Protein backbone atom coordinates (compact mmCIF):
# COMPACT_ATOMS: atom_id res chain seq x y z
CA UNK A 1 0.00 0.00 0.00
CA UNK A 2 1.51 3.40 -0.91
CA UNK A 3 2.71 5.71 1.87
CA UNK A 4 0.29 8.65 1.80
CA UNK A 5 2.12 10.89 4.30
CA UNK A 6 4.14 12.99 1.88
CA UNK A 7 3.10 12.08 -1.65
CA UNK A 8 0.60 13.53 -4.07
CA UNK A 9 -1.16 10.89 -6.17
CA UNK A 10 -2.19 10.87 -9.79
CA UNK A 11 -5.77 9.76 -10.49
CA UNK A 12 -4.82 6.14 -11.35
CA UNK A 13 -2.78 5.78 -8.13
CA UNK A 14 -5.58 7.35 -6.09
CA UNK A 15 -8.19 4.95 -7.56
CA UNK A 16 -5.82 2.01 -6.99
CA UNK A 17 -5.37 2.92 -3.33
CA UNK A 18 -9.10 3.46 -2.65
CA UNK A 19 -10.23 0.29 -4.49
CA UNK A 20 -7.66 -1.96 -2.82
CA UNK A 21 -8.45 -0.56 0.64
CA UNK A 22 -12.22 -1.02 0.12
CA UNK A 23 -11.74 -4.63 -1.07
CA UNK A 24 -9.50 -5.52 1.89
CA UNK A 25 -11.87 -3.78 4.34
CA UNK A 26 -14.69 -5.97 3.01
CA UNK A 27 -12.55 -9.08 3.49
CA UNK A 28 -12.71 -9.95 -0.22
CA UNK A 29 -10.05 -11.71 -2.27
CA UNK A 30 -9.45 -10.70 -5.89
CA UNK A 31 -11.00 -14.05 -6.93
CA UNK A 32 -14.21 -13.11 -5.04
CA UNK A 33 -14.39 -9.77 -6.83
CA UNK A 34 -13.79 -11.46 -10.20
CA UNK A 35 -16.72 -13.83 -9.57
CA UNK A 36 -19.08 -11.00 -8.56
CA UNK A 37 -18.02 -8.36 -11.10
CA UNK A 38 -17.03 -10.62 -14.03
CA UNK A 39 -13.81 -8.60 -14.41
CA UNK A 40 -10.67 -10.72 -14.86
CA UNK A 41 -8.27 -11.14 -11.94
CA UNK A 42 -5.49 -9.70 -14.10
CA UNK A 43 -7.47 -6.53 -14.80
CA UNK A 44 -8.40 -6.08 -11.11
CA UNK A 45 -4.76 -6.54 -10.14
CA UNK A 46 -3.67 -3.95 -12.74
CA UNK A 47 -6.27 -1.47 -11.46
CA UNK A 48 -5.16 -1.99 -7.86
CA UNK A 49 -1.53 -1.45 -8.83
CA UNK A 50 -2.21 1.64 -10.97
CA UNK A 51 -0.91 -0.15 -14.08
CA UNK A 52 -3.93 0.64 -16.26
CA UNK A 53 -6.51 3.37 -16.82
CA UNK A 54 -9.87 1.67 -16.98
CA UNK A 55 -13.26 2.66 -18.36
CA UNK A 56 -15.97 4.10 -16.12
CA UNK A 57 -18.14 1.07 -16.89
CA UNK A 58 -15.47 -1.36 -15.59
CA UNK A 59 -14.80 0.89 -12.61
CA UNK A 60 -18.52 1.02 -11.80
CA UNK A 61 -18.78 -2.80 -11.89
CA UNK A 62 -15.70 -3.10 -9.70
CA UNK A 63 -17.00 -0.57 -7.16
CA UNK A 64 -20.39 -2.32 -7.02
CA UNK A 65 -18.68 -5.65 -6.32
CA UNK A 66 -16.67 -4.28 -3.37
CA UNK A 67 -19.49 -2.13 -1.95
CA UNK A 68 -17.85 1.21 -2.71
CA UNK A 69 -20.23 3.83 -4.18
CA UNK A 70 -18.48 5.25 -7.24
CA UNK A 71 -19.28 8.78 -6.03
CA UNK A 72 -17.20 8.08 -2.90
CA UNK A 73 -14.31 6.94 -5.05
CA UNK A 74 -13.59 10.49 -6.27
CA UNK A 75 -14.84 12.46 -3.26
CA UNK A 76 -11.38 13.02 -1.74
CA UNK A 77 -9.33 13.36 -4.92
CA UNK A 78 -9.83 17.09 -5.49
CA UNK A 79 -9.61 17.97 -1.80
CA UNK A 80 -7.40 21.08 -1.34
CA UNK A 81 -3.89 20.50 -0.01
CA UNK A 82 -4.47 22.83 2.94
CA UNK A 83 -0.80 23.80 3.21
CA UNK A 84 0.10 21.09 5.74
CA UNK A 85 3.80 20.80 6.60
CA UNK A 86 5.28 17.41 7.42
CA UNK A 87 8.59 17.24 9.33
CA UNK A 88 10.22 13.84 9.75
CA UNK A 89 11.98 12.91 13.00
CA UNK A 90 15.38 14.59 13.18
CA UNK A 91 14.69 16.91 10.25
CA UNK A 92 13.66 20.08 12.11
CA UNK A 93 15.64 23.16 11.09
CA UNK A 94 18.36 23.91 13.66
CA UNK A 95 18.12 27.59 14.58
CA UNK A 96 19.99 30.02 16.79
CA UNK A 97 18.07 31.33 19.80
CA UNK A 98 19.16 33.24 22.90
CA UNK A 99 20.03 29.99 24.70
CA UNK A 100 22.24 28.60 21.90
CA UNK A 101 25.46 30.00 23.38
CA UNK A 102 24.56 28.30 26.68
CA UNK A 103 24.52 24.84 25.09
CA UNK A 104 20.81 24.62 24.31
CA UNK A 105 19.98 23.20 20.87
CA UNK A 106 16.80 24.40 19.12
CA UNK A 107 15.11 22.65 16.22
CA UNK A 108 12.26 24.60 14.63
CA UNK A 109 9.67 21.98 13.69
CA UNK A 110 7.74 24.12 11.20
CA UNK A 111 7.83 27.56 9.67
CA UNK A 112 5.18 30.05 8.61
CA UNK A 113 5.40 31.26 5.04
CA UNK A 114 3.12 34.30 5.44
CA UNK A 115 3.92 37.78 6.69
CA UNK A 116 2.82 37.10 10.28
CA UNK A 117 3.63 33.96 12.26
CA UNK A 118 0.91 32.58 14.55
CA UNK A 119 3.07 30.06 16.46
CA UNK A 120 6.51 28.46 16.59
CA UNK A 121 7.14 24.88 17.77
CA UNK A 122 10.66 23.98 18.92
CA UNK A 123 12.36 20.80 20.07
CA UNK A 124 14.84 22.01 22.71
CA UNK A 125 17.73 19.78 23.83
CA UNK A 126 19.94 20.43 26.85
CA UNK A 127 22.90 18.23 27.79
CA UNK A 128 25.89 18.20 30.18
CA UNK A 129 27.37 21.24 28.45
CA UNK A 130 24.22 23.30 28.89
CA UNK A 131 24.32 26.17 31.33
CA UNK A 132 21.41 27.65 33.22
CA UNK A 133 19.86 30.58 31.36
CA UNK A 134 16.74 31.68 33.26
CA UNK A 135 16.05 35.02 31.57
CA UNK A 136 14.06 34.32 28.40
CA UNK A 137 11.38 36.89 27.66
CA UNK A 138 9.32 37.21 24.48
CA UNK A 139 5.81 38.12 23.27
CA UNK A 140 3.02 35.54 23.31
CA UNK A 141 2.05 32.53 25.37
CA UNK A 142 4.36 29.52 25.67
CA UNK A 143 3.61 25.85 26.29
CA UNK A 144 6.40 23.43 27.22
CA UNK A 145 6.16 19.65 27.48
CA UNK A 146 9.05 17.59 28.87
CA UNK A 147 9.85 14.56 26.71
CA UNK A 148 12.96 13.35 28.52
CA UNK A 149 15.04 14.19 31.61
CA UNK A 150 14.31 16.32 34.70
CA UNK A 151 14.75 20.01 35.41
CA UNK A 152 13.64 22.87 37.63
CA UNK A 153 11.94 25.49 35.48
CA UNK A 154 11.49 29.08 36.62
CA UNK A 155 8.63 31.36 35.58
CA UNK A 156 8.75 34.71 37.36
CA UNK A 157 9.08 33.95 41.09
CA UNK A 158 7.83 30.35 40.79
CA UNK A 159 9.97 27.24 40.28
CA UNK A 160 8.40 24.07 38.89
CA UNK A 161 10.03 20.63 39.27
CA UNK A 162 9.44 18.98 35.89
CA UNK A 163 10.00 15.46 34.55
CA UNK A 164 8.99 13.55 31.40
CA UNK A 165 5.26 13.99 30.79
CA UNK A 166 4.96 17.28 32.71
CA UNK A 167 3.85 20.45 30.96
CA UNK A 168 3.65 24.16 31.73
CA UNK A 169 1.80 27.02 30.02
CA UNK A 170 2.73 30.63 30.76
CA UNK A 171 2.97 34.26 29.65
CA UNK A 172 6.18 34.61 27.61
CA UNK A 173 6.69 38.26 28.62
CA UNK A 174 7.53 37.18 32.21
CA UNK A 175 11.19 36.06 32.54
CA UNK A 176 11.46 32.28 32.42
CA UNK A 177 13.80 29.39 31.71
CA UNK A 178 15.66 26.42 33.20
CA UNK A 179 16.83 26.97 36.77
CA UNK A 180 18.56 23.61 37.37
CA UNK A 181 19.27 20.74 34.99
CA UNK A 182 18.50 17.82 37.31
CA UNK A 183 18.81 14.85 34.93
CA UNK A 184 20.31 15.24 31.46
CA UNK A 185 19.89 14.89 28.57
CA UNK A 186 16.72 16.96 28.66
CA UNK A 187 14.37 17.23 25.69
CA UNK A 188 11.32 19.42 25.72
CA UNK A 189 8.77 20.56 23.20
CA UNK A 190 8.24 24.32 23.29
CA UNK A 191 5.26 25.90 21.53
CA UNK A 192 5.06 29.70 21.40
CA UNK A 193 1.67 31.12 20.43
CA UNK A 194 1.75 34.70 19.12
CA UNK A 195 -1.95 35.03 18.25
CA UNK A 196 -2.78 37.11 21.34
CA UNK A 197 0.45 39.12 21.27
CA UNK A 198 0.34 42.73 20.22
What is the structure about, briefly put?
The protein has about 200 residues and is α+β, with helices and mostly antiparallel strands. The protein is built from five helices and seven strands, in the order αααααβββββββ.
Classified by CATH, the class of the largest domain is: Mainly Beta
- Count, helices: 5
Instruction: Please count the beta strands (DSSP E, at least 2 residues each).
Output: 7
Q: Which series of helices and strands comes N to C?
A: HHHHHEEEEEEE
Straight-line distance between termini = 47 Å
Largest sheet: 7 strands, antiparallel
CATH superfamily of the largest domain: Jelly Rolls
The secondary structure category is alpha+beta
Low-confidence stretches: 1-6
Report the radius of gyration as a whole number of Å: 26 Å
Q: Name the CATH architecture of the largest domain.
A: Sandwich
Question: What can you tell me about this protein's structure?
Answer:
The chain has 198 residues and is of the alpha+beta class. The protein has two domains: 64 residues, Orthogonal Bundle (434 Repressor (Amino-terminal Domain)), CATH 1.10.260; 101 residues, Jelly Rolls (Sandwich). It contains five helices and seven strands. Strands 1, 2, 3, 4, 5, 6 and 7 form a seven-stranded antiparallel sheet that branches. The longest helix has 15 residues. The protein starts with 10 loop residues before the first helix and ends in a 5-residue tail after the last strand.
Amino acid sequence: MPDITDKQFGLDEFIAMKVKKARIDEGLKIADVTRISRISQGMISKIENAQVSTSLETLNRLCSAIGLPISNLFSDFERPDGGAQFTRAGEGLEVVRRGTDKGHTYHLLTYHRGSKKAFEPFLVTMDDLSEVFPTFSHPGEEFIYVLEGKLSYRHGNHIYEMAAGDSLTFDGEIPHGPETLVEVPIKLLSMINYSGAG
